[in-house]
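User: C-alpha cells for Mediator of RNA polymerase II transcription subunit 20, please.
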Amino acid sequence: MPVTCLVRWKNATGMRDFTLIAEHVTKSLHGKNMGQWGLSFKVYRDVNPALARQQQQQQMAPKDSKLMYQVSLAQQPGRVYCMVDGSVVVEAEKEIEVILSRLKNLWQLRQNVYIEGVTYEIGDFTLRVANILLGSTYKGLLLEATYHPCSTPNVSSDLIREFVKSIVPKTAELSAEYEYNYETVGLSNNDFTTAHTGYQYMMLFRNDGLL
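Assistant: Done. Predicted C-alpha cells:
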C-alpha cells in the first residue's frame, strides 16, 4: 500500500488554520474533499497486583508498569494496531477491545482519544487533516500525507516533506519523523502497510508528550 507520513502543526490556532488549509487545498491546489475520517487512540497501563496497594495510595502508576498503545484507523475498519512499550507492533481484530475491557485486572485504560477530520485528494497525494483535542486542551493540527506512487518506506521522505511544506504557511512549527527503522518493531522496511501508519501514530503521540 502507499506510504504515509504524519506531521503535527504545533502552533496552529484551531479552526482558523483548519479552514486556512481547507481553502488552500481546494482553491489553490484544486484538491477534492472526500469526506470525514477519524481515528481512535487508546493507552492501557498494566496492573501489577504486587504493587496495587502502592498504586492506589500514590494515585499514580508504578515506575515499572508497562503501557500498551492501541490505534484504530478509519481507513482500516475492523482492525487495531497494538504495541507494548516499544516491543513489536501487532495487528488484531477489533474485538480485542472487548477482550481488554474484560481484563481490567491485567490492563487498565489510561487514556482514550478520538480524532476526527477531513480527507482530501490532491493529485498523487491523499491528505487527512484534523484538530488534535485532548479533552478540552488543543494540541495542534494533525496532517496525514499519503503518497500513492510509492509503497516502500523511507524512499519518498523528501517528496512528502516538500508536499507538507506546500500545504502549511512558512510560520508553521512542525513536529514530524519522516523516516523510521520499522524492523525494530517487527515491521517491514520494504513494504508499507497500515500497521506502519499505526506505529507512526504511537510514536507521534508518545514523543510529543500527547499521552
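User: Anything notable?

Assistant: Residues 100 and 107 are 7 Å apart (CA to CA).
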